[in-house]
Amino acid sequence: MSVSIVMLAVMATLYACGVYLLLERSMTRVLLGFLLVGNATNLLILITAGKVGSAPIVADGVAPEDMTDPLPETLILTAIVITFGVSAFLMALIYRSWRLAHEDSVEDDADDIALRAGTSMVPSDGNEQDSSDTEFGTRGEAVISTARESRPRDDAAVSDAPSDDGGPR
């Protein structure tokens, strides 16, 4: 098996450029980096597939040694489908980020800064709700608390209900 040096160089360049773009702050560049890494992975599978041969269709006069292994092609097709699905998801995230904030860069939050500094953040007790954290504002909080308060709670009906053995609880 001889491997083409040009294919290896193209694959390495695609991986290097893809990883560089994945480490950027812009979500569009992250998407492009993901696409480059996906294509580099497809090239890697193609390079490691082995020698080129005839189609893997059993016919008269074709020896099994002369056929190409179909597994690398199926792995490449699967990788293409997975890359397409994740790319569509990333494009939806980028679009949503652009519609909400008119920017596609990722900003540092307090946890990122604390992690970079080597300190850990004290976890909150979870009781405080920040209404600016959601696009619903205070309406989302009101709907949840109203639904919880509107449930009927009849403790007497629950205590008089028969248990599994037929007697009262």
UniProtKB/TrEMBL annotation:
<feature type="compositionally biased region" description="Low complexity">
    <location>
        <begin position="158"/>
        <end position="169"/>
    </location>
</feature>
<protein>
    <submittedName>
        <fullName>Multisubunit sodium/proton antiporter, MrpC subunit</fullName>
    </submittedName>
</protein>
<feature type="transmembrane region" description="Helical">
    <location>
        <begin position="74"/>
        <end position="95"/>
    </location>
</feature>
<keyword id="KW-0472">Membrane</keyword>
<dbReference type="GO" id="GO:0005886">
    <property type="term" value="C:plasma membrane"/>
</dbReference>
<keyword id="KW-1133">Transmembrane helix</keyword>
<feature type="region of interest" description="Disordered">
    <location>
        <begin position="119"/>
        <end position="169"/>
    </location>
</feature>
<feature type="transmembrane region" description="Helical">
    <location>
        <begin position="30"/>
        <end position="54"/>
    </location>
</feature>
<dbReference type="Pfam" id="PF00420">
    <property type="entry name" value="Oxidored_q2"/>
</dbReference>
<dbReference type="InterPro" id="IPR039428">
    <property type="entry name" value="NUOK/Mnh_C1-like"/>
</dbReference>
<dbReference type="InterPro" id="IPR050601">
    <property type="entry name" value="CPA3_antiporter_subunitC"/>
</dbReference>
<keyword id="KW-0812">Transmembrane</keyword>
<comment type="similarity">
    <text>Belongs to the CPA3 antiporters (TC 2.A.63) subunit C family.</text>
</comment>
<keyword id="KW-1003">Cell membrane</keyword>
<feature type="transmembrane region" description="Helical">
    <location>
        <begin position="6"/>
        <end position="23"/>
    </location>
</feature>
